[in-house]
Amino acid sequence: MSTQPLPLEGITVVAVEQAVAAPFATRQLADLGARVVKIERPDGGDFARGYDTAAGGLASHFVWCNRGKESVAVDLKDPRGLALVRRLVAGADVFVQNLAQGAAARLGLDAATLCAAHPRLIAVDVSGYGPGGPYADKRAYDMLVQCEAGLVSVTGTPDQPVKSGVPAADIAAGMYAYTGVLAALVRRGTTGRGGPVEVSLLDALAEWMGHPLHHVMHGGTAPARTGLAHAVIAPYDAYPTADGSLVLLSVQNDREWRRLAERVLERPELAEDPGFATNTARVAGRGRTDEAVAAALAPLDAAEALARLEAAGIACARLNTVADLAEHPQLAARDRWRSVDSPVGSLRALLPPVTFPDGPEPRMGRVPALGEDTAKVLGELGVAEDELRELRERGVVA
Predict the structure, then answer these.
(1) Is 93 within 8 Å of 122 (Cβ atoms)?
(2) Which of 75, 125, 170, 237 is the catalytic position?
(3) Count of CB atoms within 10 A of residue 28's CB?
(4) Long-range interactions of 214-223: CB distance < 8 A, separation 24+
(5) Are 388 and 378 in contact (CB under 8 A)?
(6) Is 170 a catalytic site residue?
(7) Could you tell me the pTM of the whole model?
(8) What's the half-sphere exposure (Cβ side, CA atoms, 13 Å) at 280?
(9) pLDDT digits (tens, 9 = 90+) for 228-257
């Protein structure tokens, strides 16, 4: 039986958010028990709703980042709509926004303004490049920030740099916004005061670039783009098997190479051969190293290759597709899948990575339709039905 509540029970979050970075942050808060009120435009809402229709008619990005929230559709350009949102913020613990640079300040919804008016409020500004500097007003889509942060320069093959297949800059910023809120809540618990929090996509992804960045700044060279291979370790790559799969393996030291040579390659002489016996030699002769490994794995199907590598104590994995991930036996064995309600019915979703064994499961709430909670939330503010009807007729809310 659960002995503790979810850690954010009783916390109210108001978010003027769009796309991925801020919505991903506030979804984490909702999963852990916070009430998240999502403010959307009446004319279409968060534009991520229109990215695709892959999730049973809903956009996959939106389903991923917005479960467990209440959608309130309000026109912030209308003074009456803006006043309603300010009233919501006055009663909130946390406010998060990722509007275009300068837009929140023009509305009086930037962190500095709100925290001056509400000392206990934690207000988060998520931006592309930060509030100042020559890049402050640049558009900051995920791919652009991946390029500016140098991630693309170290990802791909020798012939072709590539961006990450997931929105790495958005995810990084969302996770730092999430952890920033948690840290600010802890501080408020000891000081009684909230305060502003700033997170930019570039700062977040630059932090993730720490290894190559420090390597270059302190005298090294930038890591070479090596596809699935490792720039300074061999063998460390993907190798084809008889059934058309790819199996990845990594040898971290010369003891592991000896086991690989003896028990998988069945060529024990390579453990002593000066051209293979050390990692330095294997990297210098990477072509020969890869040929020896590939020749041993090519006659085996993927299951046989993985079994032989596991038995030898060699780190290995199958190169899965996204569809394979959806049916991954480890996720199934650990019961990581749940059903989430939505306007199109039940959808599969993974439990969030952070769970609390001594408490209830994360709250994986409904994916809201646009404006689904407008009447309820505004009613809690004291907006009467006739006033709500008028606001709807004038397009202030939806």
Answers:
(1) yes
(2) 170
(3) 25
(4) 222/153, 222/154, 223/154
(5) yes
(6) yes
(7) 0.93
(8) 1
(9) 998 889 999 999 999 999 999 999 999 999
